[in-house]
Amino acid sequence: IEDSNSPSGFRYELFDDYDILFNEWAQNNSFITTEKVAAFDFADEPVWNQMNMEDLALVAARIKQSFPDIPIMVIEAPDVIDQLEITDDIDWIGFDRYGTLDPKNDNEYLSRLTLIKNKRTNPNQKLVFVMESQWLDFYTDAGIEEDILIPMANSYYELAKSEEDAIALISYLLPSGFDTPDQKGYFDLLPEVQTAIQNIGNEIVNQ
Question: DSSP secondary-structure letter at 88?
Fold first, then answer.
């Protein structure tokens, strides 16, 4: 729901009949397996969107009960990681920090990576890295060229490879105009940028 006090402008709240709605959804989607779904990401940036952490734990447990073999993923905004509360039902965790040109060597980014690592509640929880495959007018106005996304993507990849608990490298995002009208997604990026990101994906898939 809309909430002017939330940093995102919205607040996540459960419907009163959420359990009935979830049961119906789970029954209709009982065919879902790990071959079809890599992970469930049910609440993007929960703290940033003012979600009650008890609700986060409740929903994670409910999903895990119905789909025990499919990982549950939570991605948080970079500046509120300290408020995030993770339970054992959450399998993969990560954060996004857009506009980071060289995450592998960026102290602000690495400090947040340490924070997210420390949020884990058991040694089996894995790390998700969210790299940037978007372009905004803001970047151009700042004097940055779009092909900077090539070394940026490589930096994310090298960082992810250096972390033994890394499980996924997500490229955000594919379509244009999803968040803002000026947003250019992967499908509309420079061909050489697309190729660089494709090469990373191919290397991961073919390992």
Answer: T
Cα 177 from Cα 39, distance rounded (Å): 25
Phi, psi of 103 (to 5 degrees): -60, -30
Query: Residue 207: its pLDDT value, please?
Result: 84
Contact assessment for residue 159 and residue 103, using Cβ atoms and an 8 Å cutoff: yes
Check if the beta carbon of residue 161 is closer than 8 Å to that of residue 127.
no
Q: Six-digit token pair at 155?
A: 């930096």
In order, the DSSP letters of 120-166 are -SSTT-EEEEEEE--B-HHHHHTT--GGGHHHHHHHHHHHHHH-TTE
- 3-state SS class at 85: coil
Render pLDDT for 72-110 as a digit per residue (tens, 0 to 9).
999 999 999 999 999 999 999 999 999 999 999 999 999
User: Which residues on neighbouring strands pair with residue 135, listed in sequence order?
Assistant: 184
3-state secondary structure at position 74: strand
Bridge partner residues of 184 (DSSP): 135
What's the pTM?
A: 0.96
